């Protein structure tokens, strides 16, 4: 399947080197349609996440999915108000967490790194399927632990909104101004040869 750059992406994002358009097309909108996501499409995102690289193949990532109104309302109390005002319309909310203890009983220091990679795979597959995703750090992890019954050896990282992108005009005026793909710093600011370089 050939993917082309989305019109709003062409306007705001430009790669200096040749990469697949899926990497630039993936961004984090806040306007969502309430249209349901078919099971075969939704679970293909988790299938992609399943195949993310993992230190010692521990696969520490865990996903708690809320797609019924009852389950989504269970999520709302631990999501920050600034995120709730837009994310409640998304048909699916997912809490991503990871197992902090490895199979040998010791702390897995790669657990969050691996969970982040799984989230990246999920987000890219969502983009391929015509869906949008937005990961939110604005939530109360301890409240989420209590409400969702998350064990002590599991660390919650983010809540992800998943759905089909809605119209910008459905958002408040302040949010409409932010409803565009963000740019990225130059490679020279993040890639150093040989030793770390301060800019």
TrEMBL record:
| Record-linked Pfam families | Nitroreductase
**Is this entry keyworded Cytoplasm?**
no
- The superkingdom listed in its UniProt entry is Bacteria
The protein's matches in InterPro entries, at most eight in alphabetical order, are given as: Nitroreductase, Nitroreductase-like
Q: Which residues form the Nitroreductase domain?
A: 25-83
* Keywords (A to Z) from UniProt: Oxidoreductase
Q: Does the keyword Oxidoreductase apply?
A: yes
Q: State the family named in the UniProt similarity comment for this chain.
A: Belongs to the nitroreductase family.
Q: What is this protein called?
A: Nitroreductase
This chain's source organism reads: Brevibacillus reuszeri
């Amino acid at each position: 399947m050939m993917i082309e750059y989305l019109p709003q992406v062409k306007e705001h994002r430009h790669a200096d080197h040749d990469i697949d358009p899926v990497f630039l097309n993936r961004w984090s909108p806040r306007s969502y349609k309430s249209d349901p996501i078919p099971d075969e499409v939704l679970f293909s995102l988790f299938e992609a996440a399943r195949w993310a690289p993992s230190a010692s193949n521990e696969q520490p990532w865990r996903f708690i999915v809320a797609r019924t109104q009852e389950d989504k309302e269970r999520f709302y109390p631990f999501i920050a108000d600034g995120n709730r005002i837009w994310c409640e319309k998304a048909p699916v909310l997912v809490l991503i967490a990871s197992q902090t203890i490895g199979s040998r009983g010791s702390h897995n220091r790669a657990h969050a790194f691996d969970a982040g990679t799984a989230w990246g795979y999920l987000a890219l597959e969502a983009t391929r399927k015509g869906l949008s995703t937005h990961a939110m750090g604005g939530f109360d992890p301890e409240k989420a632990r209590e409400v969702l019954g998350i064990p002590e050896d599991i660390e919650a990282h983010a809540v992800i909104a998943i759905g089909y992108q809605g119209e910008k005009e459905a958002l408040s005026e302040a949010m409409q101004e932010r409803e565009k793909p963000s740019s990225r710093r130059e490679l020279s600011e993040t890639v150093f040869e040989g030793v770390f370089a301060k800019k």
